[in-house]
TrEMBL record:
The keyword Signal applies. One of its GO terms (cellular component) is ATP-binding cassette (ABC) transporter complex. It comes from Corynebacterium falsenii. Residues 289-309 are annotated as: Disordered. This is ABC transporter substrate-binding protein.
Length: 320
């Protein structure tokens, strides 16, 4: 989801005071005075979530809905608890992560293994959401893990898809970079072996703790590794802040779960006017849009989420 690990470090100031004051697993918005007529829009504590939260807030305000933004709440456990308690009314989420989160302890309702289609992910999410919480329309935008290689490397070894890796691994080692937890994730080396017949013994994993950021990109660029896990909405920047051209290997067997952007909301807190306004954002928001907005924030411009959101909404004709 964007360079999330690195971004959390970079933006901790937005939410750290509240988190320290009340504990990492508590709701930092719980003591806020709430006006029942106001839609409180929250976000996680990384820039992409804040940008989407600002999109929601500003399009609601433009539609005449009394809305305010409470960004940088914390990790998933914290902001979803805030939503459940009613400290916030709306928060941006990702379909696969949300479905997996709410499906815990409900294996009979959630089959989210390899091969799960995006529509099945959304259907599962609807089944496992708690009473009073609902998901709005999913956007085309998807912020998920993806495997990338350098263009010359892809051309030399005829790599366009994860399905091509087994043949490559017959005589070569896959040197894979990613967050440390990727090593044990179902879509990591074990998943590549199970779904795409890539021997785990032929995958040399190199943990890099920057969420697919500049350290990972540099390792890919200089040949330290030959494949890297980078989020689909992350701008691919080296340590000098320059964009680097890479090739995303297709995932025809859907090893990696769909992660479409969705608004999670308290069902009774948003009227039809508010839901219609959100729908307009969801219909227009694409993966490339998010990538470009993230680039404005994390690249050389260093634009603020609020301004980035306003510019996108204005460009799409959704605000004046």
């Amino acid at each position: 989801m964007s360079t999330k690990i690195a971004a959390v470090v970079a933006t901790t100031a937005l939410g750290s005071t509240a988190l320290v004051a009340c504990g990492a697993n508590e709701d930092p918005t719980a003591t806020n005075d709430r006006n029942d007529s106001t839609v409180a829009v929250g976000s996680a504590n990384f820039p992409e979530s804040e940008i989407i939260g600002q999109l929601y807030t500003q399009v609601l305000q433009n539609a005449g809905v009394n809305a305010n933004f409470q960004g940088g709440i914390g990790a998933r456990d914290v902001y979803l608890a805030a939503l459940q308690k009613g400290s916030i009314d709306l928060v941006p989420e990702y379909s696969g992560n949300a479905a997996q989160y709410y499906a815990k302890g409900k294996p009979e309702e959630a089959d989210l293994g390899p091969g799960t289609e995006p529509k099945e992910v959304l259907s599962t999410l609807d089944k496992v959401l708690p009473e009073g919480i609902s998901a709005g329309e999913a956007a085309p935008a998807e912020s998920r893990d993806s495997y990338r290689v350098m263009p010359d490397f892809a051309a030399q070894h005829h790599l366009t898809s994860l399905s091509d890796l087994a043949a490559f691994a017959e005589n070569n080692t896959i040197k894979l970079a990613g967050n440390p937890e990727l090593e044990t994730r179902p879509y990591g080396p074990e998943g590549l072996e199970k779904v795409y017949d890539v021997p785990k013994s032929k995958i040399e994993f190199q943990p890099i703790s920057d969420g697919g950021g500049p350290l990972t990109v540099n390792a890919l660029k200089d040949g330290t590794v030959n494949m890297a896990d980078i989020y689909t909405t992350s701008p691919v920047l080296d340590r000098s802040g320059n964009e680097v051209s890479v090739v995303e290997l297709k995932d025809p067997k859907r090893l990696i779960l769909a992660q479409q952007v969705i608004p999670l909301m308290r069902t009774d807190s948003l009227n039809d006017k508010a839901k219609d306004a959100l729908k307009k954002v969801q219909e227009k928001l694409t993966t490339d849009d998010l990538k470009q907005m993230n680039l404005r924030n994390s690249g050389k411009e260093k634009a603020e989420p609020k301004q980035i959101a306003h510019d996108w909404l204005k460009d799409k004709g959704l605000v004046s």
